């Protein structure tokens, strides 16, 4: 079976994308924070969220679904704090390189 790499017509991808958007809105989270716990890069998550990812959409959808099942009440405060600290350190390191 050939995978649908666009994902636009796949109802499961559309539903999962909407669920992740709602999760992000409800818990005030960004793609930059969520990409690591979901298990994809920020660019993959961004492209997937916009329906423009040309890779394995089913694999990304499965990872997002697993993440949402694992975190129905949002991220634990200590996990969120750690992710935010890591993201800030990464931004600082990149700005020093410029």
Textual characterization of the structure:
The chain has 98 residues and is mainly alpha-helical. It is 69% helix and 0% strand. The protein is built from five helices and no strands. The N terminus is likely disordered.
Summary?
The protein is 69% helix and 0% strand.
User: Treating each run of at least 4 consecutive H or I residues as one helix, how many helices?
Assistant: 5
Q: What is the helix/strand order?
A: HHHHH
Strands, total number = 0
Fraction of residues in helix? 55-70%
Largest sheet: none
Query: Strand fraction band?
Result: under 5%
In angstroms, what is the radius of gyration?
A: 14 Å
Would you tell me the overall average pLDDT?
87
Any low-confidence stretches, pLDDT <50, length ≥5?
1-8
Question: What class, by secondary structure content?
Answer: mainly alpha
Q: Shape, please?
A: globular
State the end-to-end distance: 45 Å
Q: Any key phrases for this structure?
A:
5 helices; mainly alpha; disordered N terminus; 98 residues
Describe the secondary structure blueprint for this structure.
Blueprint: H1 11-27, H2 31-38, H3 42-49, H4 57-70, H5 77-97
Helix pairs in contact: 1-4, 2-3, 2-5
């Amino acid at each position: 079976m050939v995978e649908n790499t666009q994902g636009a017509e796949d109802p499961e991808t559309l539903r999962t994308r909407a669920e992740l958007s709602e999760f992000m809105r409800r818990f005030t989270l960004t793609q930059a924070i969520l990409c690591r716990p979901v298990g994809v890069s920020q660019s993959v998550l961004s492209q997937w969220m916009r329906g423009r990812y040309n890779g394995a959409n089913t694999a990304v959808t499965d990872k997002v679904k697993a993440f949402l099942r694992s975190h129905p009440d949002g991220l634990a405060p200590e996990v969120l704090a750690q992710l935010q600290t890591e993201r800030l350190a990464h931004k600082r390191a990149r700005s020093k390189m410029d």
